[in-house]
Amino acid sequence: MRSLPPVSRRNFLVTSGAGAAGLCVAGSAGGYSAAEMRGFTADDKLIGISKWEIDTPALCVDIDKLSQNIATMKTKLAEMKVASRPHAKTHKCPTIAKMQLAGGSIGICTAKLSEAEVFSTHGIESILMTTSNVSPNKIRRAMQLRLTNPKFIQAVDFPPNARDLNDAAREAGVVADVVIDVAVGTRSGIPADDRALELAQLVDKLPHLKLRGVISYDGGAQHIKGFKNRLEQTLNHFAPSVAIYERMKRAGLNTEIFSGGGTGTYNILPKAPGITDLQVGSYIFMDCQYLEIGCESNEEVFTDFTPSLTVVSTVLNTYFPNSITTDAGAKALTLNKPGPWVVGEKSFAYNAGSDEFGVIKYETAGRSYKVGDKLELIVPHCDPVVNEYDQMYAIRGDRVEAVWPIAARGRSQ
Ligand SMILES: Cc1ncc(COP(=O)(O)O)c(C=O)c1O
């Protein structure tokens, strides 16, 4: 990996303009040929047209940058001797999940049962659902999924839920694989104390459950600004999870999985003893929230991975001084902060607060804009933006090479 000079946000936006030459290394799309890529295409008419000609707002993914991000993660994690089990809630797209698996990932994660069902239907077997299923119908559905997909693994963080899962697994005639979700913070998971060990012992004893290990995810750590801060806080917060993992191991329980981490801590969590794999999600696309936190080699911008996901938008109105209106508002970009970054413009302030319109305020522009012109936007937060679209346009150079259905989009149940 070549080392990159420090980049400020302002310079980054200009150098990452058309082609993002400064940060991208061209590569093949995870081993797929152009013909194979077309196999995933939902709309043949669009193949070969320029991305600037697609009706907007259009969600675009640059295939070379996406592939490079997958390859970079593979190389970095191999150096640290851990695997990746990427979180598919980021892309919700079976084509990308298959690229990740072809790029060495050992499986995928999902947040929702309906996502897991979609990915399983698309032939992806190794799925770890990181959220617990607690209602009777979801527990039954999860066990039905386990029946058709023997590689489905389910998180559990509550003893009565483990017993319910065991009963449903018995009814379905399966022995279901389970990981204990150990909390870091207060969002989800069982507290990292005796209760976690007792839950693991309970799962181990229940005849229709098979204990596979531990997951432990620190949502609060991923976006801590400044690498040193992030490193210190992540490892401190994570120490109780490591202690539980070690106690489970000493008690003779199965700890073959010890999974956690995300894009912000991808090169930190492997320093925690025992970690087997990382649940990295956003690294494939990157977004403004991640770009802003900095990385080990650059305090200002997280440059380890290249933004591959953009929304192309059309200028609708330029009547008003120092103001541009576009067709990409909250429904195209969400209300997440910071606002989208406009590629090629150093100082545009983009407000996506209106449902259907984006409003840009600026003092100076890198070029003049007229109605019908196109703008390319780096999205505030990739996961919820992807969830707004039925498909993404897979772009190579500036041409549409394929249209990838976002098959699990809207699958929240
Ligand atoms: C359980 C879990 N694992 C992993 C991730 C990692 O995602 P990212 O790499 O996008 O930060 C998330 C994101 O919210 C998550 O909820």
Describe the protein's architecture and organization.
The chain has helices spanning 9-15, 34-39, 63-79, 94-102, 113-121, 136-148, 159-172, 194-205, 227-250, 288-291, 330-333, 382-386; strands spanning 58-62, 83-84, 108-110, 127-129, 152-156, 176-181, 209-216, 257-260, 277-278, 309-317, 323-326, 341-342, 349-351, 358-361, 374-378, 391-396, 399-405. With 413 residues, the chain is an alpha/beta fold. Helix 5 (113-121) runs parallel beside helix 6. The longest helix is centred in the middle third of the chain and has 24 residues, at 227-250. The relative contact order is 0.17. The model is unreliable at 1-6 and 17-33 (pLDDT under 50). Bound molecules: pyridoxal-5'-phosphate.
Largest sheet: 9 strands, mixed
CATH superfamily of the largest domain, by name, is: Alanine racemase
Just give the CATH class of the largest domain.
Alpha Beta
Distance between the termini: 40 Å
Beta-strand percentage range: 15-25%
CATH architecture of the largest domain: Alpha-Beta Barrel
- What fraction, in percent, of the residue positions are helical? 25-40%
CA radius of gyration: 22 Å
Number of strands: 17
Helix-and-strand structural type: alpha/beta
